[in-house]
């Protein structure tokens, strides 16, 4: 028992020494454990610190990395060679990281521009001093960056399947994941099949058995807003195919007749040596077969 008590006392003493050594080092960091930013907008990551050298005038290096402490990828780095020298950026991954603070004033805060989904990660702040012992310190828990995003309709398509007939698919994204609703020509809601994407912020709603011609609207909603996208569906029936072909030939014949008339008039005017030359203006109208996609986005009433 005495031997066990001696061992416990030795371990306690060792822990006291380690704790005292950490406090005596004079290093401390203040960072936010969690930060939330919106996709497409900037966000600030705060990092302030203290170090044991009150009048330090040597080289100072500030570093931000992602993923894990000490071994994660460096996405920002700046170097200041003396107290009168600004911390010059030497690394800025994809040129989207900007220094907000002044490391000489114990502030290594940065700004991330134009947030994308890949920016959701854990960020670690690190400071290095070129002293005799090459003092350096890095946050171990870091800052977790969470992303939010209002709904956005990415794509709407119409496809044919032998089992379900014509179907409309609406792909949307957002965080939180938006809910999707389909409305049809009669402004009624339809039962849809939800297909979860491999990306957690994307979702697909499939509407089967398109029967009526007209406008089908996909509505995406979450706590940050609402977005709409529409597709215009027109299905040609087999019984009217010959009539449509007749109309096509008739329209083509009328256009050819008008062309011959215009060419004849141009030739006649040319023989009269008229100084005014006729100008032939043709309007090109693009015709859609069965679908056309438009999109609207509405900001949330309580989202700033």
UniProtKB/TrEMBL annotation:
<keyword id="KW-1133">Transmembrane helix</keyword>
<feature type="domain" description="Ig-like">
    <location>
        <begin position="151"/>
        <end position="223"/>
    </location>
</feature>
<dbReference type="InterPro" id="IPR013106">
    <property type="entry name" value="Ig_V-set"/>
</dbReference>
<protein>
    <submittedName>
        <fullName>Sialic acid-binding Ig-like lectin 15</fullName>
    </submittedName>
</protein>
<dbReference type="Pfam" id="PF07686">
    <property type="entry name" value="V-set"/>
</dbReference>
<keyword id="KW-0472">Membrane</keyword>
<dbReference type="GO" id="GO:0032956">
    <property type="term" value="P:regulation of actin cytoskeleton organization"/>
</dbReference>
<keyword id="KW-0812">Transmembrane</keyword>
<feature type="signal peptide">
    <location>
        <begin position="1"/>
        <end position="24"/>
    </location>
</feature>
<dbReference type="GO" id="GO:2001204">
    <property type="term" value="P:regulation of osteoclast development"/>
</dbReference>
<keyword id="KW-0732">Signal</keyword>
<dbReference type="GO" id="GO:0045124">
    <property type="term" value="P:regulation of bone resorption"/>
</dbReference>
<feature type="transmembrane region" description="Helical">
    <location>
        <begin position="243"/>
        <end position="268"/>
    </location>
</feature>
<dbReference type="GO" id="GO:0005886">
    <property type="term" value="C:plasma membrane"/>
</dbReference>
<dbReference type="InterPro" id="IPR036179">
    <property type="entry name" value="Ig-like_dom_sf"/>
</dbReference>
<dbReference type="InterPro" id="IPR003599">
    <property type="entry name" value="Ig_sub"/>
</dbReference>
<dbReference type="InterPro" id="IPR007110">
    <property type="entry name" value="Ig-like_dom"/>
</dbReference>
<dbReference type="InterPro" id="IPR042836">
    <property type="entry name" value="SIG15"/>
</dbReference>
<dbReference type="InterPro" id="IPR013783">
    <property type="entry name" value="Ig-like_fold"/>
</dbReference>
């Amino acid at each position: 028992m005495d031997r066990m008590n001696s061992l416990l006392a030795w371990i306690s003493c060792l822990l006291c020494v380690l704790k005292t050594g950490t406090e005596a080092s004079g290093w401390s960091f203040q960072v936010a454990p969690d930060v939330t930013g919106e996709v497409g907008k900037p966000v600030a990551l705060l990092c302030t610190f203290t170090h044991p050298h009150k009048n330090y005038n040597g080289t100072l290096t500030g570093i931000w990395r992602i993923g894990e402490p000490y071994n994660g990828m460096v996405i920002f780095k700046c170097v200041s060679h003396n107290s009168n020298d600004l911390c010059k950026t030497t690394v800025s991954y994809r040129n989207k990281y900007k220094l907000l603070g002044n490391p000489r004033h114990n502030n290594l805060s940065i700004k991330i521009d134009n947030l994308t989904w890949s920016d959701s990660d854990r960020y670690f702040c690190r400071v290095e001093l070129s002293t005799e012992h090459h003092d350096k310190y890095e946050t171990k828990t870091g800052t977790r960056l969470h992303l939010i995003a209002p709904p956005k309709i990415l794509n709407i398509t119409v496809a044919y399947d032998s089992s379900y007939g014509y179907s409309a698919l609406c792909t949307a994204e957002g965080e939180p994941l938006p809910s999707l609703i389909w409305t049809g020509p009669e402004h009624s809601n339809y039962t849809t099949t939800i297909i979860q994407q491999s990306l957690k912020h994307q979702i697909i709603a499939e509407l089967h058995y398109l029967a009526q011609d007209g406008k089908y609207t996909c509505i995406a909603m979450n706590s940050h807003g609402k977005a709409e996208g529409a597709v215009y569906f027109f299905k040609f029936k087999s019984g009217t195919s010959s009539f449509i072909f007749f109309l096509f030939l008739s329209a083509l014949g009328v256009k050819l007749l008008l062309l011959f008339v215009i060419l004849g008039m141009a030739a006649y005017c040319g023989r009269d040596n008229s100084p005014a030359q006729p100008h032939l203006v043709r309007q090109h109208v693009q015709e859609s077969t069965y679908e056309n996609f438009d999109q609207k986005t509405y900001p949330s009433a309580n989202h700033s």
